Fold this sequence. Notes:
The structure holds 2 protein chains of 2 kinds. Chain A has no helices and 8 strands. Chain A is mainly beta. Chain B has a domain at 4-118 and 232-249: Thiolase/Chalcone synthase (Peroxisomal Thiolase, Chain A, domain 1, 3-Layer(aba) Sandwich), CATH 3.40.47.10. In chain B, the strands form 2 sheets. Chain B has a 9-stranded mixed beta sheet, with helices on both faces. A two-stranded antiparallel ribbon of chain B has the order 5-6. In chain B, strand 10 and strand 11 (398-406) form a beta hairpin. In chain B, helix 7 (163-177) crosses helix 12 (309-318). Residues 12, 14-15, 17, 26, 28-29, 31 of chain A line the site of zinc ion (ZN).
Amino acid sequence: xxxxxxxxxxxxxxxxxxxxxxxxxxxxxxxxxxxxxxxxxxxxxxxxxxxxxxxxxxxxxxxxxxxxxxxxxxxxxxxxxxxxxxxxxxxxxxxxxxxxxxxxxxxxxxxxxxxxxx
Amino acid sequence: xxxxxxxxxxxxxxxxxxxxxxxxxxxxxxxxxxxxxxxxxxxxxxxxxxxxxxxxxxxxxxxxxxxxxxxxxxxxxxxxxxxxxxxxxxxxxxxxxxxxxxxxxxxxxxxxxxxxxxxxxxxxxxxxxxxxxxxxxxxxxxxxxxxxxxxxxxxxxxxxxxxxxxxxxxxxxxxxxxxxxxxxxxxxxxxxxxxxxxxxxxxxxxxxxxxxxxxxxxxxxxxxxxxxxxxxxxxxxxxxxxxxxxxxxxxxxxxxxxxxxxxxxxxxxxxxxxxxxxxxxxxxxxxxxxxxxxxxxxxxxxxxxxxxxxxxxxxxxxxxxxxxxxxxxxxxxxxxxxxxxxxxxxxxxxxxxxxxxxxxxxxxxxxxxxxxxxxxxxxxxxxxxxxxxxxxxxxxxxxxxxxxxxx
Lengths: 118, 407
Ligand SMILES: [Zn+2]
């Protein structure tokens, strides 16, 4: 298991549109060549929720915060936020690679999460 | 294009229906629609069935073929449409295409779901969450309610709206549901509060106090609480479609589907430039309005997809009734009540009528047929002639709008 997951997006080589890496073609111009760019610097919290009735795989966590953030270079991402208290739209966060749950087979699942900048 | 007429409808009660399995529900709704349309002796060309998770919830596949067999409609063509919580709307659209194109002249459309027997906590949440984008959303613990929580928070902040206004939508829908004999909850939130007081569970001065109490109304996906979210329900609904030229042979008061539209949006919700805009609804309702040569001002009654009360607010804007950001306020001001300027969800909506996933898109059309025929009883919208629906698949990434008018 790697100890890091790069938070990346694809930038269309033709029109510059920034989109998730799962799209095979540009959502704006249908072009299929991209530059993969990394999220840069800190990010701002656009919206968040605290989920108290999680799906099966996350039941052992009880309750957790999820948020959508936007980085300085425009990349957006969704992830869990630690700690889940005192959140507000517009606050600055940073991504950290961490365990997010045990899956149904009992294996640990890691991903980036967002934390308060100390 | 041929005119497409709805000549009969059927609708089981929605709720926790322990004595019925999925096939029973589908058959009950279908047989009621056959009776209602006087088509018991007719040959049907096609049956379109909308159901979201019959494999996951009921260990069934091939259910459209099984349904035709059970109903004695062989050799009618049979298709199962799966489009998440918009499976019912997709089934109506398939039936519309079949009649409009002239390929078929008599079609049964039925939608249904059986889900209340599932007792594992989180199972249904998890099954429904498979709709979301795995890599970007679901693996982080996203559920549909959490997407609604994220949308609610940004909407309230951006448009300076109040959580109480979303509660007002739930209060209205429960009030309407109390007038609907097939609704899951035929009970006002005021009555839930009164029962709780009688049971000694607390004392609240206002309904808003009751709705902001963590015990009486627990948080599910902050800021959304239990009463902002639709229930898990069983049920089915059906309509009979035929070529408009022959509709009056079967019934005195056919309803025409004069406009229909469907559109998609990004799978990852945060990739939408403005997260508070449901562009799939803007596009699909625009298609429906154009096809019917109508505008939002022509609509007398609407059935919107309030799986979460924030959705009714946002949909009432993107379907063209209110300016962006004013939907929640409009509901708060009573403009969407049964006697308001644009009645929304007289049925009680998903919140009170219930939400058996695949049934909903068909049930919305059934409610509009009852409204347009003047058969909606105590929840009747006065002189309703034109109605529109919004059926929501996934989280806004696949939306169907259906516009109906009196013939
Ligand atoms: Zn491009």
